[in-house]
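Colleagues,

For the teaching module next term, I've prepared a clean inverse folding example: a structure given as tokens, and then the sequence designed for it. I'd like students to try predicting residues themselves before seeing the answer, so please don't circulate the second half yet.
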């Protein structure tokens, strides 16, 4: 696997590949890789001539500086996992390489409702940071295919919007890959590494509460079902940012299902100082 640390070098190399007609798949990550990330790499490897992964813990998307400082880093193991998965290239930049001048932070991406609902509401500025880094990465890599995880459902919507805003939607095809889970149902996440043994046991309540809603939403009383699911979470020690059933396309709240609407349940909750998110498409 080739490792590039310099944006210009990767950009130059990727340009040469593209001129040869090579299909390039791209998987952006923040590292501390787990099988969920690797499932994205596998999907890309199967469909492209070259797969490029990036590892960059993006400071501009952390609204809580402590969360940024504590973000797990396991770079040696990450490299081994990527090599095992036959990833061709790793882009491993440092912060000045991604943000060479301060002007970049003055740019505002118009994200509309995506910035007001759910993650947008609870993490002010987060999606501006996500757009900043993904915009820069896409300019460097210019992939044909971009692989994202449904685990970050709203982020997928934001990146789709970004790709339209920067007029790359005719060039880049976005692929949303399903969420890989631990055997008990907990969504794999780099942040799970920060849970102690007891917290790890309790964390499964996130999946259980989503499954409870999935099993019961057809009965009509969605607010009542959500109240009971919230009790499951708080009973396990979680502090909930949100647990909501929404329309899957515009994230507007849903009180009862009409039998046709595509709906989703999304959750974000803290177990002590570890914030976990998850979601489940309900129909
Ligand atoms: P992250 O390193 O958390 O920024 O994630 C990098 C990419 O991997 C994002 O597109 C995530 O949605 C995706 N991802 C994270 N966790 C999972 C998972 N459990 N299953 C599938 N994809 C995931």
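(Answer key — instructors only)
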């Amino acid at each position: 696997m080739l490792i590039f640390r310099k944006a210009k070098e990767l950009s130059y190399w990727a340009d040469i590949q593209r001129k040869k007609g090579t299909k390039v798949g791209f998987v952006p990550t923040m590292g501390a890789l787990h099988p969920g990330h690797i499932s994205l790499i596998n999907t890309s490897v199967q469909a492209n001539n070259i797969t490029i992964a990036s590892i960059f813990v993006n400071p501009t998307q952390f609204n809580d500086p402590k969360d940024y400082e504590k973000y797990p880093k396991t770079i040696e193991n990450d490299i081994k996992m990527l090599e095992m998965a036959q990833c061709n290239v790793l882009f491993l930049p440092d912060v000045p390489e991604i943000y060479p001048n301060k002007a970049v932070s003055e740019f505002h991406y118009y994200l509309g409702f995506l910035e007001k609902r759910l993650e947008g509401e609870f993490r002010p500025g987060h999606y501006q940071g996500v757009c900043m880094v993904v915009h820069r990465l896409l300019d460097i890599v210019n992939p044909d295919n971009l692989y994202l995880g449904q685990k970050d459902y709203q982020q997928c919507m934001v990146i789709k919007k970004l790709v339209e805003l920067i007029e790359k939607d005719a060039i880049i095809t976005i692929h949303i890959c399903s969420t890989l889970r631990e055997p008990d149902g907990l969504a794999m996440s780099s942040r799970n590494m920060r849970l102690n043994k007891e917290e790890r046991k309790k964390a499964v309540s996130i999946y259980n509460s989503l499954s409870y809603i999935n099993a019961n939403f057809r009965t009509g009383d969605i607010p009542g079902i959500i109240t009971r699911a919230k009790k499951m979470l708080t009973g396990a020690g979680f502090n909930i940012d949100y647990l909501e059933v929404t329309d899957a396309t515009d994230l507007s709240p849903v009180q009862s299902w009409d039998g046709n609407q595509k709906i989703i349940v999304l959750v974000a909750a803290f177990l002590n100082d570890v914030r976990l998110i998850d979601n489940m498409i309900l129909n």
